[in-house]
Amino acid sequence: MDTRPATGIIAAYRGRRHGLTVDDTTRTSSVRRVHRRTSGLLRFQRRVEREFVADYRRRGIALARFTIVAAFVLHWAAIFADRSLLGNHLIEPWPALGMYGLGLPMVTLYAVLAFSARSGRLLFALAPYIVAVNGAGVSMALLTAGEHEGAPGLPHTLILLNPVFTLLLSGMLLRQALPAALFVLAWHASLTLSLDYPPPVMVSDGLVIVGSVAMSLVGGWQIESWQRAAWLREREFRRLADRDQLTGLASRHLLFLRGEALLRAARETRSSLSALMIDVDHFKEYNDRYGHAAGDECLRRIADVIRGLVGDAGDIAARFGGEEFLVLLPGRGPREAMRAAENLRARVAALPMGDGDSPRLSASIGAATAPRGDVPDLDSLIALADDAMYRAKRGGRNRVVAAA
């Protein structure tokens, strides 16, 4: 018996690096390399960064809602505390402008955006400006009230809560939070100089505020670095769950996830959804004759043919199990589904696999269509296509059969 490998298969297998079939250790190392390259700058490559920011915003809304409640409590606690310590000095023009004209409106605006269902994008766009203006208002209120005669020697350390909130608790990315924190720091320093505070007070204030900004900056950098590393790992796990590692097609998990959505859309728009169940003929004999390496390469080549068929963004192709594949074609009626299936069958039959002593590889395909999405569920549509595929097998293989 001729045991030579199928023409071109082993050579291709040995010479090819499979980006989707590296082992989990290599994947983990890749994630670590990406994180090491980007952790210092806290920025991924452009496409990945956009994906991260979108996900960060979705998750950050919950943090924003929590911290705004804390900010309100601290803000009003500070007002009452300062009112008791400074008396009427806090309601004089400049302190009142800082506390009630700048600080309180900004906290209120942040709360409105945080608790509004559809303003997440706007919240994260405006957050640096809101936080900066709020911090400037609190700084103005404390410094201008504290300069009046009769006011106690109140240290202005309350302002250190602003960089802590800005850099650690606001839910902003560090590159957004840092300019806001530095603006408040510069504003506080300029006010301190312009109000001619005694040098010991200025030095004490400066050390407290600069120290709080520095510590918050380090903490914020470390938190975001951890968040990015965790997000990268989660993203890779999702990708592994969504893709068949041998062929790169969708996994069964992703197939059913997107398939149910396609079926709901077909019902809502009263359009068709077609399914093609594809089984590789004589695959067991091929695999036994040439070995698992050649069998895997065979499946990859057939997957490439299927991938070329589903060019439309709405189509989905998945490895259903073993040598079976499933294709969902939204918006395709019975004729279009049969035409696509026949095209696929012909392409698979033309692949240069096998030799004269072994059966040529081919595909038996079952096609089923749900007009207007009128099937009970996705499993029912798949069962119709599966039944048609088995009738194609019984009819002699290498053929397309439509569901009854």
Features of the shown structure:
2 domains, 5-stranded mixed sheet, 8% strand, alpha+beta, disordered N terminus, Alpha-Beta Plaits, 5 strands
Can you walk through the features of this model?
By secondary structure, this protein is an alpha+beta fold. Helices cover 66% and strands 8% of the residues. The chain has two domains: 37-239, no CATH class; 252-402, Alpha-Beta Plaits, CATH 3.30.70.270. It has helices at 9-15, 24-39, 46-86, 93-115, 120-146, 161-169, 174-194, 199-242, 252-269, 283-290, 292-309, 334-349, 378-394; strands at 273-281, 316-321, 324-330, 362-370, 400-402. A five-stranded mixed sheet has the order 2-3-1-4-5. Strand 4, helix 13 and strand 5 form a beta-alpha-beta unit. Helix 1 (9-15) crosses helix 11, helix 5 packs parallel to helix 7 and helix 7 packs antiparallel against helix 8 (199-242). Mean pLDDT is 77; it is low at 1-29 and 148-153.
